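Checked the freezer inventory, then went back to the computational side. Two predictions to log before the end of the day. The first one is the construct we discussed on Monday; recording sequence and tokens without edits.
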Amino acid sequence: MSSITEALDALDAVIERVGAADIEELPPPERFVALERLEHAVRRQVAISHEQVTHLERYEGCPPVPVVLADVLRISRSAAKRRVRDAEQLAPRRSLTGEQLPPLLAATGKAWEAGVLDGEHVRVIQKFLRELPDHVGPVEIEKAERTLAEHAQTMRPDQLEKIAERLAIHLNPDGKYSEEDRARKRGFVWCGGQRGDGMSVGKLVADPQLRSMLEAWFAKFAAPEPDDLRSHSQRQHDALTTLVQSRLGDPKLGQHNGLPVTVIVTTTLQELQAGAGHAVTAGGTLLPITDLIRMATPAHHYLAVFDGVTGQSLWLGRSKRLASADQRIMLLAKYRGCTAPGCTVNGYNSHVHHAAKDWKHGGSTDIDDLTLACKCDNLLVENHGWTTRQLPDGHTEWIPPPNVPLRGGTNTYHHPERLLGEDDP
């Protein structure tokens, strides 16, 4: 038995003892002391776990390390990527010649290893360093990182954040930012998935160019009209809708994965007839049937209709014949996204994949043998020994090589109705 296995067995036993202990045996003030010690122990374990991440390697048949780490630990892929990134910044490194080097964030890494920092402390320091302008020199950056690491050992993360804000102003008192600084910060992301009411919240950080163009667009299309009861933000929302709607389906946009750049929607005949329920886009968005009907009038979208009872495809509405692209539309309608277990990549960003035998190895482009796979998972089949097959129920099963510590199976992420035992059109 290896030493780390013995140590983990001993740790499991100690954790059982701590869990079975009665904290009420201590006087009330000492219970806080016990919890502080427990918190320190937890932080030490987290730091050790992150250090061990640096020793993980990708081997034959395995996806990238963060993907495997996410599945083995049952954490999100974003959390796994964050752990890998944290380990690279906080754990000791080795040079190409084998010499041990301090962590990239030396002071923070030392405090992290000692168990006196929480993950929130680290996030504050990382954000501070990430948002510094390029003209701040390495000496000032190192001193600032050391200062924040010292304060983090006696402060809550929210207190540390205030110190970081003051320190950022001190290092850049004139508020000077280069074009590269601004370009690094630009972006748009959805803040989580759709809410229960179907609405979505996004965060836009616009550079001066985008803001100036939006201002011009809003001046025309978000201007108040007589008897207009919409708020200012509602008018701007509707103006963005007008902008995007006017562009979707335009041949000048070219194609994305072989299809025109437009909305692809799946629904059932029963929902269309009832005028209720939700359709599903190839991006995974739930679209109320009332909105779908309203969208279908002015735009060139693609609508695949299924029988909600038998699952039989009934109709494919499109502006022109697309030949083999028709198959892709029906695959988007059937699978909605990558079919690899647990993969959340939506249909728009997935590729057509031969489930039984790849085309370059003699497989036929038969709709019954086609499925969807994202680029990363497709490479697992092509280069790393994974196999796929179509099950009698039409689902795609993924089978890993024998030496890979991942479970195969089918993907239910894009079909939550399966989890509830509902009919799956």
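The second is the one RB wanted added to the comparison set:
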Amino acid sequence: MRQEPDTAEAALKALMLAGLAGDGAAYRALLSRLTPYLRGYFARRLSRAAEAEDLVQETLIAIHTKRASFDQALPFTAWLHAIARYKLIDHLRKSGIRATLPLEEAEAVFGESDSEAAEASRDVRELLAKLPDAKRILLEKVKLEGLSTAEAALSLGMSESAVKVGVHRSLKALMKLIGGRDD
């Protein structure tokens, strides 16, 4: 499941700060989590996968060597994007390719329109907050967290059939809230 931008920012920044404090496992986790984001960022901008992979490695090395320059008062993803963007610009210059990379693409490290996804997520959370706790929790477990019916039943101490019926009824209640049909 894709994380909201604020959640991803907080998680990545926490790993970076722990890494700066000497937690090697957190730092390794940070670099591992950044790899797919960077791979996607570079793959969307370059035609050859090998070039993109080289830039991922160069960016991870730059993050490591420049980690002391990270300003803990600022967002981690802005710092990350600046490094990735400069690595891409350097690569394009060396290759003789002229392209513009607008600064407004700062969120592009995290893929498609995260702002739209964040707005939709906020809307869903607001609607869910209007449901009774039991219905809200069922929908969060099964539909948002992606738990199977069996996993949700186990975590909530319910039977699988009770979870199925509860999710169905919760969805009907949610549809009534948004003015949709209840069938």
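For RB: Residues 130-177 form a domain with the Arc Repressor Mutant, subunit A fold (CATH 1.10.10.10). The chain has two domains: 5-112, 130-177. Let me know if you want it refolded.
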